[in-house]
Design goal:
Blueprint: E1 3-4, E2 13-14, H1 15-23, H2 27-37, H3 41-62, E3 66-77, E4 89-105, E5 111-115, E6 123-125, H4 128-131, H5 140-145, H6 147-154, H7 160-173, E7 183-189, H8 199-214, E8 217-218, H9 221-234, H10 242-248, E9 254-259, E10 271-274, E11 279-285, H11 294-308, H12 310-320, H13 325-328, H14 339-346, H15 350-357, E12 361-363, H16 364-370, H17 376-384, E13 395-397, H18 399-420, H19 424-436, H20 454-463, H21 479-490, E14 495-499, E15 506-512, H22 516-527, H23 530-536, H24 544-549, E16 551-553, E17 561-563
Parallel strand pairs: 5-7
Antiparallel strand pairs: 1-8, 2-3, 3-4, 3-17, 4-7, 4-9, 5-6, 9-10, 11-15, 11-16, 12-13, 14-15
Helix pairs in contact: 1-3, 7-8, 7-9, 8-9, 11-17, 11-18, 14-15, 18-19, 21-22
């Protein structure tokens, strides 16, 4: 719930003063910027350049009026892919490229936004009509699914204005009794779109933080994280909380280990660690965007569909094996469904005993018959509704995706522990094993086919293989991302993996500090090669400049908030 305080009258600094300070920063301003961005001169120059562009556009668009600047960094997740929707463990850091919003009070109830990128046209709107709907005071998910709300969104799905409208509506929803004052402003970003660094979450956080501030309101960190997630849900996305949490919770230079229950999130599981000076994280842009169709789309979606059922299926199998109901009922998230708990319930090797009970695959009708899944048909339609009916899958792989769920959350726990103990080689290995669970193409060029048969489970159990060293089968990579992971590993990285939802976007590589430039060189060589261009479907090889810009060392800057002058 937002805390609106009418006595807290927000103020700003004239845009012309901002422009002058950003052009020729005084020492106090430079000191303030160093607290936010660190002391790297090149990074500070990049941040100043983006800030100047946003403020100059504001002056052109809205004139010289009091303005406040809000920002949100990008994010990376070193380990804990795809598990945030099930409350699994994550390893989050901020990323130096960001979204910046220069905002002013509009003087009324209207919201007007412009963007420094010409492909995003100016948008103006009021939220009064939607905020007056009878369902606005219901739960947010009920409101956004109402037909009278969806009809407006579906008419222009994907337009950037709907993210902004979602931000304003979600902020109003937190305190519906007090109408919001509108804002006007300019947004700018140097986060590459479609690069799995979560530019949309950064946009939502920047705007929500700004709308709150200009209305004299506050939210707790968790409330802001949930509000930004909900704003994206307004547009039709069904993201988890990891992106927003990565932008709000970690401090500069910090890796944050946390498990966030999507229904009742809190920060009680948070553990913090300064990234060791001995390692570097490379962020590698693939220059590809997600585009799936036909069999590839069905294969990717089939695993995601099965994965969405993971917790309900595993809880039912535990009940079938006689686990006490009072314990099973409390195992509704991956963070709680640990190997230790499963050993207590099922005996040594409990995680393998549980997986052994789950069929490798089931026809849809058999899935309905075996498990009580009240939302099964709705979920199937949600995942496959855009696929022609004669192409929709009837056979659903279960064991591979559910093994990935258990293994990946445990990998994320083990990854943070390895960093804490200085075992950076083990941390790197965990990254690579996690990517193997997403792989399509092995290093030698053959298709990946990870064995999850009964015999394979029995062998791993007999050998005492920790579950975190089992990739599982999620399959969210692509041949392009696999090639970049392999280039980093061949160049000397300790580990490499996709980050984010996969298919396209970015790869992360964990390196020894002294090896970072060698690894970056190897990846840039791959990026600029004709073979990579053909694999990625590019018109031609990337230029040396594009390849150089495609690989950078991650700089974990300050979390999302308001930028102040010195």
């Amino acid at each position: 719930m937002a805390d609106f305080n009418a006595s807290n009258t927000p103020t700003g600094i004239n845009a012309s003063i901002w422009a002058a300070q950003l052009q020729h920063p005084e020492e106090a301003t430079r000191a303030r910027l160093r607290k936010v961005y660190g002391s790297d001169a090149g990074l500070l120059d990049d941040r100043l350049a983006l800030l100047r562009r946003v403020v100059e556009r504001f002056l052109e668009q809205f004139g010289d009026r009091p303005v406040r600047i809000f920002r949100s960094p990008g994010r990376i997740n070193l380990r804990g892919m795809h598990v945030d929707t099930h409350g699994g463990y994550l390893n989050l850091m901020t990323h130096q490229r960001e979204v910046v919003a220069a905002l002013a009070a509009s003087g009324g109830a209207t919201f007007t936004f412009a963007n420094i990128a010409p492909e995003f046209p100016e948008t103006t709107f009021s939220i009064a009509e939607e905020a007056a709907l009878p369902g606005f005071r219901t739960a947010w998910t009920e409101f956004i699914m109402a037909p009278e709300v969806r009809v407006h969104i579906e008419a222009d799905r994907g337009a950037w204005g709907y993210y902004l409208r979602g931000c304003a509506l979600r902020t109003q929803h937190a305190a519906p009794e007090k109408p919001l004052g509108g804002v006007c402003g300019v947004l700018g970003s140097d986060l590459p779109r479609g690069a799995a660094l979560s530019s949309s979450a950064a946009l939502c956080l920047s705007v929500i933080t700004g709308v709150l501030a200009w209305n004299g309101a506050t939210m707790s960190a968790i409330e802001r994280i949930v509000a930004a997630r909900d704003a994206e849900w307004y547009t039709g996305s069904r993201c988890g909380l990891s992106d927003q949490a990565a932008m709000v919770l970690p401090a500069s230079g910090e890796v944050l280990s946390i498990a966030l229950d999507p229904d009742t999130p809190d920060v009680s599981s948070a553990r913090r660690l300064a990234l060791p000076d001995s390692v570097r994280v490379l962020v590698i842009h693939s220059y590809t965007e997600r585009s799936l169709s036909g069999a590839a789309l069905v294969a990717y979606t089939r695993n995601r569909f099965a994965y969405s059922l993971a917790m309900a299926i595993m809880q039912q199998e535990l009940r079938n094996q006689g686990a006490p109901e009072d314990i099973v009922a409390g195992l509704g998230s991956l963070a709680r469904l640990t190997p230790e708990i499963l050993d207590d319930l099922l005996g040594p090797g409990g995680v393998y005993a549980l997986l052994r009970r789950i069929p490798e695959s089931l026809p849809l009708d058999a899935l309905r018959a075996r498990y009580t899944l009240p939302g099964l048909d709705e979920a199937y339609e949600r995942y496959f509704g855009t696929v022609p009916k004669d192409e929709r899958p009837e056979l659903i792989g279960l064991r591979g995706p559910l093994m990935f769920a258990l293994a990946e959350s445990q990998r994320a726990r083990a990854f943070f522990g390895a960093l804490e103990e200085g075992q950076i080689e083990r941390a790197g290995r965990l990254m690579s094993v996690g990517h193997d669970g997403d792989r399509h193409i092995a290093a030698g060029g053959a298709p990946c086919a990870y064995d999850v048969s009964d015999a394979a489970l029995e062998r791993r159990m007999a050998e005492g293989t920790p579950v975190e060293m089992c990739p599982g089968v999620y399959g969210a990579s692509s041949p392009v991302l696999d090639a970049l992971v392999d280039a980093a590993l061949e160049g000397g990285a300790l580990g490499a993996s996709l980050t984010g939802a996969g298919i396209a976007g970015a790869v992360l590589a964990l390196c020894r500090a002294e090896d970072a430039e060698r690894v970056a060189y190897a990846v840039r060589a791959r990026l600029s090669s004709p073979g990579y261009a053909a694999l990625a479907g590019l018109d031609g090889p990337l230029s040396a400049r594009e390849a150089a810009q495609g690989v950078c060392i991650n700089r974990a800057i300050s979390p999302a908030g308001e930028l102040l002058l010195g």
